Amino acid sequence: MIIILKGLEEINHIKGNNFGWLFGGKHYDFFATILGFGDAYYHQVAEILPLEKGMSVLDLGCGTESVGIAISRHFGRDVEIHGVDLSDNQLGYAAIKGLRLDTSLNLYKGSMDLLPFSNGSFDLVVTSVAFCETTSDVRRGAIKEVSRVLKNKGFFAIVDCAKPILGLDTVMMLPFFMFKETAESWNNHYPDICRENNLILEKEVYIKSYVKCQLFRKAD
Ligand SMILES: C[S@@+](CC[C@H](N)C(=O)[O-])C[C@H]1O[C@@H](n2cnc3c(N)ncnc32)[C@H](O)[C@@H]1O
């Protein structure tokens, strides 16, 4: 197993909500499961992604890398997983989970709007409930970076807070999302921003009553 924990010198905390000791690492997984983001959710995300053997996948705001681990359950080492996050606690626990489950994860400390990868490095970029933890500027910067690091015809999946449709879980989760920065925090604005960056919406599907997956494809 290869685990690379690359540290950037300084991470500006204005870049997003950094999940520190109280809400990071194993505490994050505990709270996430209670709030409905357990194995079943990550399995659902992995199932939606247009994955194939041999792909190189980047997870933005990877947290404890539950998305990458769910992908590995389907494909083992046939898919290469890379994750970027701001938080030492999240990355540290992701590394522990990777070792425990014998899953190869490449983890980087950094902000999703400043990616340390060369152009055209990935077949698929995914982000799960992490855009909603950043500012509007960071989200726009991240989309620009995604377009740069994706191969032509590569996929980009934004799984993020969406305008709620009726459901019991909406009522439970609404207090967490109702104070987010702007209306742009709901993912109904991303198709326009993505289109400006050569990423075209292919499909969208609600995973929960307030979480939607939008799948984009990079045009030639
Ligand atoms: C709600 S958690 C989601 C974690 C994981 N994607 C999941 O689905 O379980 C949001 C994550 O985004 C990270 N984050 C926030 N702003 C970020 C940024 N600008 N760049 C990279 N990661 C960021 C946080 O540290 C946190 O781990």
Automatic annotation (TrEMBL):
Going by the UniProt record, its keywords in alphabetical order are: Methyltransferase, Transferase
Q: What Pfam families has UniProt attached to this entry?
A: Methyltransf_25
UniProt key word Magnesium: no
- Gene Ontology MF terms: methyltransferase activity
Limits of the Methyltransferase domain: 57-154
What does the entry give for GO biological process?
methylation
CDD domains tied to this protein: AdoMet_MTases
UniProt protein name: Class I SAM-dependent methyltransferase
